[in-house]
Amino acid sequence: MLNRPPCVWSFLLCLLATLAGSTAKGQTPTTALQHQLSRIDIGVSGVGEFNRDSSGTVTVNAQPTPLTLSPGNTLGALVTVRYTKAPLVGLEINYGYARYTQNFNTIGGVQQNASEYTLGYVAHTPTLFGVHPFVAGGGGAMVFRPTPRGGLGLQSQVRGAFYYAVGAETTVLSPHFGVRAQLRQVFFTAPDFYANYLSIEKHTSTIQPGIGVFFRF
User: What is the mean pLDDT of the chain?
Assistant: First the structure.
C-alpha cells in the first residue's frame, strides 16, 4: 500500500527550474521571472465520471466464481497546472478527485475516494476563431481509498494509469483568464483493494467530459 501520492509535483518543479535556467540567460531576474510566469496557467474544471464495467473469474473456497465490477458514475473535479514553452511543447500535471462506489456482485458496494495524479505532454494547434484547440497525454497513478464507513474495511490501493485528452480553450475576454472544455479518458486496472476474492486484473477506464476556467499569470 502506498501512503503518499506519486512525486509528480517535485518532478515538474525540477523540470520547470531547468527550463527557466535555459531561457533566463541574458535577461534580468525580474524579466526572466515574468517571462516564465507568463507560460504557466492553473485550471480548475468540473468533470463527469463515467466508469466502465469489468468482469472476470475469481476463486472463492476453491471454486471459480464469476465476478462483475460495476462502478458508479458521478461528478468530480480536476486541477491542472500547465507550462507551455511553445504551441507544440508543453507539460501539465493533473490532480483529479471523485467519490463513487465500486459495486461488486459478490460483496456489494465499496464506497471510495478516487484520486488521479498524472504528468503529461500538451500541444496546442493554431487559434481558430478565438478558440485554441489542444491535445494532451501522459501517465501516473490512480489511488483508490475506501471510506471509513462505506469501504467494508478494505485497504487503499494504487494503480498505474495513463490518459489522453482533447479540448479547446479561449482567452477572448482577458489574456489572464480563460474557459477550457475537454474530453479525457483515463485507463487503469480495475481495483481489488488487495483482496484475492476481488482480483480480476482487468483493464478498465473512466471517460471524463469537463468544463472549467483557468488563470494565466
Answer: 89
Q: Is residue 50 part of a domain?
A: yes
DSSP letter for each residue of 165-176: EEEEEEEEEETT
Domain with 67 in it: 8-216
**Per-residue 3-state assignment (H helix, E strand, C coil) for 131-152:** EEEEEEEEEEEEEEEECCCCCC
pLDDT band at 61 (very low <50, low <70, confident <90, very high): confident
User: What CATH number should be reported for the domain holding residue 50?
Assistant: 2.40.160.20
What is the spatial distance between Cα 212 and Cα 45, in angstroms, rounded to a whole number? 4
Single out the residue of 34, 208, 50 nearest to residue 136, CA to CA: 208
Query: Which residue type occupies 37?
Result: L
User: How far is 107 from 198, CA to CA, in rounded Å?
Assistant: 9
Tell me the pLDDT tens digit for each residue of 104-131.
999 999 999 999 999 999 999 998 888 9
Per-position b or e across 163-189, b if 16+ CB within 10 A of its CB: bebebbbebeeeeeebbbebebbbbbb
Contact indicator for 180, 167 with CB cutoff of 8 Å:
yes
Give the N- to C-terminal CA distance of the chain in Å, as an integer. 38
Q: Is there a contact between 152 and 193 (Cβ–Cβ < 8 Å)?
A: no
Q: Is residue 2 part of a domain?
A: no
